[in-house]
Each structure stands twice: as C-alpha cells, then as structure tokens.
Amino acid sequence: MKNKIRDLRTARNMTQEDLAEIIGVSRQTINAIEKGKFDPSLPTAFKMSKLFKLPIEQMFLFEE
Amino acid sequence: MKNKIRDLRTARNMTQEDLAEIIGVSRQTINAIEKGKFDPSLPTAFKMSKLFKLPIEQMFLFEE
DNA sequence: TACTTTTGTAAAGCAAACTTTACATAAAAA
DNA sequence: TTTTTATGTAAAGTTTGCTTTACAAAAGTA
Q1: How far apart are alpha carbons B33 and B31 in whole angstroms?
Q2: Cβ–Cβ under 8 Å, residues B49 and A57
Q3: What ranges do the domains of chain A cover?
Q4: Which CDD domains does the record match to this protein (chains A, B) (predicted)?
C-alpha cells in the first residue's frame, strides 16, 4: 500500500515529530508509515484523514 | 469506532462466513468487527470498501 | 419437535502495529 | 566549520488484529 503522507506533511512544513505528536503516535511510527514499512491502523488513518482534510482513499493507495 | 458491516452484509443476504471468505479473514474476525470488539486493519477495511462499493468513511464511523 | 445453519464467544497462539531507547547520518543553521 | 535539527534505522517489548479449535446458543427449516 502506497501513501502520500510524506508529501502532505512536507507541504505543510511539518517534521515527522510534529505529525507524530498531533496524530498521537511515535516519530518512528510516522517514519515507518512514510517509508512503507507497515500500514497504519484504521484509527491512525482516520486521524491523518482529519488532519489533512482528505479521505483515507486519497491518502492511501490500496493495491491487492 | 462504530460500523455498518452487519447491515451491509445482511442486506446482501450474506452470512459472516460468506463475508469472511470473500474478504480473506476468519468468521470470528467478521463477528468481532461487527460486534465492535476491535477495528479492522486498513487492508481489511479497503477490501470491505471494494466489496460493498462504499468509501471507508461511510462504513466506519470514527469517534475520538 | 427435530435438525441444520448461523451467530456468539472463549482460549491459546501468531503476526503486525506501535512503543521506548538508542545511535548514526543528513541537512540546516549559527 | 561547529552545532543543532531532522531523518533513518535497529532491538526489545507491548498491544491489538487475526488465526484455529472448540463449543454453546439462537434462529431458521423440515
């Protein structure tokens, strides 16, 4: 699953640390998600959706 | 997090077992999600979204 | 009623999401 | 160049999504 988190974050001049604090996860978790190491949980995806004002489907690209 | 999985499933005359097989999880997992025992992973949510032809946000109601 | 299907749930175990600590590298700023 | 900030990554541990097995109860059907 690809995602646009890094682009959305940097476009807002936020650091991984900033985003992590707002979302309520660790900086390493943001880094891992941006790097595609693993997918976020549904609650984490929802929090990002709310912050970036974009539907989950537009931030995360699901591919079978 | 509330969800409409049970309604969507029964509206299509599917059993938990049917849905589980299509989505690729166990029947107990479907039951737990319907009962709100836990949230599905993002990939599982995407599969349901595809099957029911509804955006994730319309199937799962996130509440802080 | 008797039988079959569907649902609910519990226990034990595995895997993935996430944590904390820690350190190394890269990039930006002084 | 020196110092600070931001990013990358690793290791060990916790939590949660999910599995299998198993059984009980509810609901539908003969």
Answers
A1: 5
A2: yes
A3: 2-54
A4: HTH_XRE
State which residue of chain A sits closest to B23, comparing Cα positions: A64
CATH class held by domain A2-54: mainly alpha
3-state secondary structure chain A: CEECHHHHHHHCCCCHHHHHHHHCCCHHHHHHHHCCCCCCEHHHHHHHHHHHCCCHHHHEECCC
B15: phi then psi, degrees, rounded to nearest 5? -90, 165
B23 interfacial to chain A (CB closer than 8 Å): no
pLDDT per residue over A1-59, tens digit each?
A: 999 999 999 999 999 999 999 999 999 999 999 999 999 999 999 999 999 999 999 99
For residue B60, what are the β-bridge partners?
B3
Whether residue B63 contacts residue B56, with contact meaning beta carbons closer than 8 Å, is answered with no
CATH superfamily, domain B2-61, is: lambda repressor-like DNA-binding domains (1.10.260.40)
Mutate to test the interface with B, among A2, A29, A46 (most CBs of B within 10 A): A46
